[in-house]
Structure formats: structure tokens, C-alpha cells
Amino acid sequence: MSTPDAPRPPMPVPNELTQFFWDGVARHELMIQRCQTCGHYIHYPKTICRFCQSRDLAGERVSGRATLYTWTIATQPFHPFFVDRVPYTIATVELAEQPRLMFLSQIVDCPEEDLSAGMPLEVVFEELSPELTLPFFRPARG
Amino acid sequence: MAIGTRVAIAGVGYSTVGRNTGLSSEELTIQATNAALEDSGLTVHDIDGITSVGTEPLQDGWMLGIEPLKWWASGMMVPAFAFSAAQAIAAVAAGFCHTVLALRVIKQQPSAQAMAAGTAARDNPMVALQLGGALGDRQWLAPFGAGSPTQWAGLLTRRHMEEFGTTEEQFGHHIIAQRYHASLNDDAIFRDPLTMDEYLASRYVSKPLRILDCDYPVDSGAAVIFTTEDRARDLHQPVVLVEASAITSIRDLNFEILEDMARTAPAEAARQLWSRTDLKPTDVDTAHLYDGFSVITFQWLEALGFCPPGQAGPFVEAGNTRLGGSLPVNTDGGACNVGRRHGANFCIEATRQLRGQCGERQVDGAEVSVFTTAVGPFAAAFLLTKG
After folding, report:
1. Which of its termini does chain B have fewer beta carbons within 10 Å around, N or C?
2. How do the domains of chain B map onto residue ranges?
3. What ipTM describes this predicted complex?
4. Global pTM?
5. Which residue in chain A has the smallest CA separation from B145?
6. Which of A:100-119 have CB within 8 Å of B?
7. CATH homologous superfamily of B147-216+246-387
8. Is the domain covering B1-109+217-237 a CATH 2.60.120.680 domain?
9. Hey, are the CB atoms on A106 and B144 less than 8 Å from each other?
10. Using CA atoms, how far apart are residues B347 and B340, in angstroms rounded to an integer?
11. What is the pLDDT of residues A96-116, one digit of tens each?
């Protein structure tokens, strides 16, 4: 394999459990695994529901609404792809569908001084490179 | 109120510790083992169990000439040295064996610069794998530019600040107190006094986490020998007893999506610990609380009941955790100053305090010490007493 000048992003390697999520991202839809028996959402996806032990699990589209739980400003890169991209804001967000349904992402379109725990957010799909689009979050617009 | 046979600490010791020592894991293991044996007065033939994080006990046992082994355990994704300690204590208490060598051998990790430049991958197959593609649970982190422990520490630190009003200066007070303790420890790597201005001027790694909030990566071997109380009383060192132990895991290893980042596993470990002893937080003379990142020590102060929930910041700022304060914490200087010995230093320093061997940094009359390891999904806590 040749090595291009620009570093490649750390590409996700989906497996049979997670393919639905990345297929959803490609359609600009945020998909989270949900137990079809008890209705709980589960993230990261698993092969059994930890709430009711059901094996009947499927990805479902969620609203993309969330609140900010915590964040950190990445000022030091740990991967060649991010060397020219620091600083950026890594955040743990709580998805609206279920208490403490946490999702790790980045916050965009928000100055650092405006960040605060509990602020409402909405998903936005950002193309980091031609080969990688990710679900990020920005302040909710209504 | 210990369960089973009462367990004691017979010996403690370190290898040469430092940056890129060039020493192999085997050499670090041998040096640490010999130091602990010498400290205890035991010989290798007195050992009948090995627990380890970072080496393979069956290979260690054969290499060192320990046979037969009657107990062994090894772990990697575990609360650091506390795993070795818990497995050793459990085995001695249950009677599987009588004297266990508990090890934590750790090789310095690749630097952030080497990671970012891609050069770390040349020497480390695990790093190469990470840079090649985000497999398994890393698919939820690496593409987002996350996955470094400093970044989840930044998330935990920010949550503590948001939830409780903790300030960056309060973390600074903690780091300055630790450095003061290190200045009294010949074995510490960083010993020059630190000012608040210097702390605040140190660079962010993952804001609000500063480089000075991080433990210092080194090559290190550490060994602690656990044995029965009866055997310990026949040895020449002052006896240190294990009063109570707790080890817990509250979820899988995904720190970044913990449901309650302000409390996490230390809260559960502390509940278990205090349920297994008649001693109370007010009985503790010295505390040795994991400090892989500053916020972890804050979580332990709160979890163990040394201050009210969320109040570690004011508690530290008031000077309580400094030598001479109401609860001296990390009297060796902590892992940010003695290097990442990954939890072992807290057990070893607690033991030395209870033996009265800490020289200038000795806490007079220390009879009860607590040491802890780790944060987030997993944690362990131990209460030691002067025998």
C-alpha cells in the first residue's frame, strides 16, 4: 500500500454488531441499538440486552437531540490525522431518548466560553475527509 | 475484621525506575523481587504464589526458581497494582498458599509526539494496529479524535468542575502539595518545589487537564510480598496488617461514556471497604490515593468520606492533604513525581509509613493507612494497620 502525503484518518472498522450504525452515518442518520423486547437503548451495541437479557436487538434511528454532559479541549494530537486539527472539542453527550444514554463525539459551531453542562445539542454530520463522515453535535437551533 | 487467615505485608521493593531505562521486563521483575525479598528477610524459596500485572506469573516463577506455584493470577485491563494485591491477599487469606509475590512491572508508553508522528507504530504492534484502523470499541473513539487516557481524564475533570464548582487552582494546590512531599523523598524523580504560577503556566494536554496533572511515564518494577500474620511476626520488619480490602468493577472499560463521571468506581469500592471494618475514615492517619490524573485523587477523597461529596477542591485548598495537615495524602509525592509505578507506590509508601521508615516525610504515630488504585469503571481500596 502506498503512503499518501496527507495522513489518513483512523477509519472505523465496523463489525456485524455495528454495521447498522455506520450505514446510518452514511445516510446522515444517527442510529442506536435498541432492545425490541423492553425498549431500552444500548450503546455500544451488544449481542444481548443488559436490561432484560433479550436477544432481539436492532438499530433504530434516534432524534439526534442531546444535552452536553462534559467536554475536553483536545490540545495535543495522538494520531497523525489530528496534528493539524487541534484544538477540537471532545464531548460526552446524553442522548434525549433515555437517561444516561451516553455518546462520545465532538462539539462544533460553539465557542469554548459558551459550553456548559446541560446545554441542548443537535446532531450534525461532518465530513472530516472524503472517506470519513462523523456524527458531531452543535448547539440546538430550535 | 479480615476474612479468613489474617494477611500481612512482609516486604516491599522497587527496581531501578526511570525514563527509557533500557531494562527488560524480566530485569525489572528480578530487581523488584530481589529488593522486596531483601526488605523482608525471606528467600525466593519462601514464595509459593505470584500475582502480576505486566508479566506472566508462570514464566516469572520458573525464571526465579519458585516451584511449585500454589497460586498465580495475571491481568492487564485491571485496576493496576491493586489487582495483584487483591489476588495475593485473597489467596493467602483463603489458604491456597502462604506467601505471594505481587508484582506490577510497567514499561514506559510511547509519547504523544511519537503517536502523533506515527513513529510509535514502528516499535509497537499495538500502536500500529490502532493507527491502522479503529477496531472493536475503538471505532467509537479513534475516528472522533479520542481514545487517549488524557482525554477521558479531561472529560472527568471538566465534569467535576461543572458539577461541584471545582477550580483549576484547586487541582494546582493538590499538585503543589504532592511536589512538596516529593521534595522530601530521595526516590522521587521531580523534587523541585512548584508554585501556583508554574502550575497554571504548564501546558494543557486535554483542557482542563494539564501536563502536571498526569502521572509520569517510566519503566518500573515494583514488588510487594504478602504473607500470613504468623509468618510476618517471625520476620525482622515491623508488621503491617491488611485490615480490609475491596475491588470492584461497575461497567466495562469505556471511561468516555461512564454514566456518572463524578463518582465512578471509587464510590463503590469505598462502600465495600468500610463495610468490612470497624475503623472509620477519621481513624486514617495517611492516605495514598491513586493519582494517574489529579481528578482521580479528588474522587477518592470524596468516595472514602474524607470530605463531603464534591468538596475535595476546598478540602485540598485548605491544606488538609499536605504533610502536617489533617490527612497527609501521597506522602511519597505521588505518581506524578515518583513516576507511573501504577499503584504499587501507594501500597509501598503506606507500608513504610506504618513501619515508621519514611524519614523526613514520616507522619508521627501513623497506625492506619489507606491505599487505592484506579478510577472510572474499576477500582480497589485497601486499609492497612500497624501490627
Report:
1. N
2. 1-109+217-237, 147-216+246-387
3. 0.96
4. 0.96
5. A82
6. 100, 102-106, 116-117
7. Thiolase/Chalcone synthase (3.40.47.10)
8. no
9. yes
10. 13
11. 999 999 999 999 999 999 999
